[in-house]
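Late entry, evening session. Most of the bench is empty. Finally got around to the prediction I had been postponing all week. Sequence below, unchanged from the version circulated by S.P.
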Amino acid sequence: MDKENKLENISASFAGVVKIVEASKDSAFRKVNEELIHMYWQVGEYLSEAMKNSGYGDGYIKSLADFFTENYPEIKGFNRRGLYRMKQFYDLYAGTEIVSSLMTQLSYRYRQPPAVPVV
Protein backbone atom coordinates (compact mmCIF):
# COMPACT_ATOMS: atom_id res chain seq x y z
CA MET A 1 0.00 0.00 0.00
CA ASP A 2 1.50 3.32 -0.99
CA LYS A 3 1.60 6.38 1.24
CA GLU A 4 -1.33 8.14 -0.51
CA ASN A 5 -3.72 5.18 -0.07
CA LYS A 6 -2.66 4.82 3.54
CA LEU A 7 -3.52 8.51 4.21
CA GLU A 8 -6.92 8.10 2.50
CA ASN A 9 -7.73 5.07 4.66
CA ILE A 10 -6.71 6.89 7.83
CA SER A 11 -8.77 9.93 6.87
CA ALA A 12 -11.81 7.77 6.11
CA SER A 13 -11.48 5.96 9.43
CA PHE A 14 -11.49 9.28 11.30
CA ALA A 15 -14.53 10.67 9.46
CA GLY A 16 -16.92 9.74 12.27
CA VAL A 17 -14.86 11.58 14.87
CA VAL A 18 -14.49 14.59 12.58
CA LYS A 19 -18.29 14.69 12.12
CA ILE A 20 -18.80 14.70 15.90
CA VAL A 21 -16.27 17.50 16.39
CA GLU A 22 -17.75 19.59 13.57
CA ALA A 23 -21.32 19.13 14.86
CA SER A 24 -20.22 20.18 18.36
CA LYS A 25 -18.41 23.23 16.99
CA ASP A 26 -21.51 24.27 15.02
CA SER A 27 -23.69 23.81 18.09
CA ALA A 28 -21.33 25.89 20.23
CA PHE A 29 -21.26 28.70 17.67
CA ARG A 30 -25.07 28.76 17.55
CA LYS A 31 -25.20 29.03 21.33
CA VAL A 32 -22.66 31.84 21.33
CA ASN A 33 -24.68 33.73 18.72
CA GLU A 34 -27.85 33.13 20.73
CA GLU A 35 -26.17 34.64 23.79
CA LEU A 36 -25.01 37.63 21.76
CA ILE A 37 -28.59 38.27 20.65
CA HIS A 38 -29.76 37.99 24.27
CA MET A 39 -27.10 40.47 25.32
CA TYR A 40 -27.97 42.93 22.52
CA TRP A 41 -31.63 42.62 23.47
CA GLN A 42 -31.02 43.19 27.20
CA VAL A 43 -28.66 46.13 26.66
CA GLY A 44 -31.12 47.63 24.17
CA GLU A 45 -33.99 47.20 26.63
CA TYR A 46 -31.96 48.78 29.42
CA LEU A 47 -31.03 51.77 27.26
CA SER A 48 -34.57 52.17 25.95
CA GLU A 49 -36.09 52.13 29.43
CA ALA A 50 -33.39 54.38 30.90
CA MET A 51 -33.89 56.96 28.18
CA LYS A 52 -37.69 56.72 28.36
CA ASN A 53 -38.06 56.90 32.13
CA SER A 54 -35.32 59.31 33.03
CA GLY A 55 -35.29 61.62 30.07
CA TYR A 56 -31.72 60.69 29.22
CA GLY A 57 -30.68 61.72 25.78
CA ASP A 58 -27.70 61.43 23.52
CA GLY A 59 -25.38 62.32 26.39
CA TYR A 60 -26.25 59.16 28.30
CA ILE A 61 -25.31 56.79 25.47
CA LYS A 62 -22.20 58.79 24.64
CA SER A 63 -21.11 58.69 28.28
CA LEU A 64 -21.72 54.94 28.41
CA ALA A 65 -19.74 54.45 25.19
CA ASP A 66 -16.89 56.55 26.61
CA PHE A 67 -17.00 54.48 29.82
CA PHE A 68 -16.62 51.23 27.85
CA THR A 69 -13.84 52.68 25.71
CA GLU A 70 -11.90 53.83 28.76
CA ASN A 71 -12.53 50.90 31.10
CA TYR A 72 -13.03 47.97 28.73
CA PRO A 73 -11.03 48.72 25.58
CA GLU A 74 -10.87 45.02 24.68
CA ILE A 75 -14.67 44.79 24.35
CA LYS A 76 -15.71 45.82 20.86
CA GLY A 77 -19.12 47.06 19.69
CA PHE A 78 -19.98 49.24 22.67
CA ASN A 79 -19.23 52.52 20.97
CA ARG A 80 -21.96 55.15 20.52
CA ARG A 81 -23.15 53.68 17.22
CA GLY A 82 -23.21 50.11 18.56
CA LEU A 83 -25.19 51.09 21.65
CA TYR A 84 -27.72 53.00 19.56
CA ARG A 85 -28.10 49.94 17.34
CA MET A 86 -28.76 47.74 20.37
CA LYS A 87 -31.42 50.19 21.52
CA GLN A 88 -32.86 50.32 18.00
CA PHE A 89 -32.90 46.51 17.84
CA TYR A 90 -34.91 46.36 21.06
CA ASP A 91 -37.25 49.22 20.12
CA LEU A 92 -37.95 47.72 16.70
CA TYR A 93 -38.79 44.22 17.92
CA ALA A 94 -40.14 44.78 21.46
CA GLY A 95 -43.43 42.99 21.87
CA THR A 96 -42.88 40.58 18.98
CA GLU A 97 -41.85 36.94 18.93
CA ILE A 98 -39.25 37.46 16.21
CA VAL A 99 -36.26 37.51 18.57
CA SER A 100 -37.01 34.20 20.28
CA SER A 101 -37.79 32.50 16.98
CA LEU A 102 -34.63 33.96 15.45
CA MET A 103 -32.50 32.47 18.19
CA THR A 104 -33.91 28.99 17.62
CA GLN A 105 -33.23 29.25 13.89
CA LEU A 106 -29.59 30.31 13.95
CA SER A 107 -27.85 27.64 11.96
CA TYR A 108 -25.17 29.38 9.97
CA ARG A 109 -21.58 28.46 10.53
CA TYR A 110 -19.60 30.72 12.78
CA ARG A 111 -17.70 33.52 11.18
CA GLN A 112 -16.78 36.65 13.04
CA PRO A 113 -19.85 37.85 14.95
CA PRO A 114 -20.94 41.38 14.11
CA ALA A 115 -20.06 43.97 16.70
CA VAL A 116 -23.70 45.01 16.73
CA PRO A 117 -26.87 43.37 15.47
CA VAL A 118 -27.84 44.03 11.89
CA VAL A 119 -31.30 45.56 11.80
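Two things to note before I forget:
The helical segments are 3-13, 15-54, 58-71, 80-93, 98-105.
Residues 46 and 52 are 10 Å apart (CA to CA).
Will write this up properly tomorrow.
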